[in-house]
Design goal:
- Helices cover 45% and strands 15% of the residues.
- By secondary structure, the chain is α/β, with parallel strands linked by helices.
- Strands 2-1-3-4 form a four-stranded parallel beta sheet, sandwiched between helices.
- α2 (31-40) packs parallel to α3 (54-66).
Length: 80
């Protein structure tokens, strides 16, 4: 699983919760880091944080599609 967002405290909290539930979790805080993680790790899901803009959500979705269509979960209040 890959968590992508800008709020460091929120990302670290979510990472701990997902790891406690038994998932292997990586974190990206910059758009370019998504491709880096997807190139080196098997990722089953990308979780997008509410701290992202609509444009960043859309770009992350395009990157996910370019890597075997990794599904994304939008945790957002903006309706990206």
């Amino acid at each position: 699983m890959l968590l992508y967002g800008h709020d460091e405290l929120l990302l670290s909290t979510r990472k701990l919760v997902w790891e406690w539930a038994g998932h292997q979790v990586s974190v990206a805080q910059e758009l370019g880091q998504i491709s880096q993680v997807l190139d080196r790790e098997h990722v089953d899901l990308i979780v997008l944080c509410y701290s992202l803009s609509r444009t960043e959500c859309a770009m992350a979705g395009l990157i996910a599609k370019s890597h075997s269509e990794v599904p994304t979960l939008l945790m957002t209040k903006c309706g990206c």
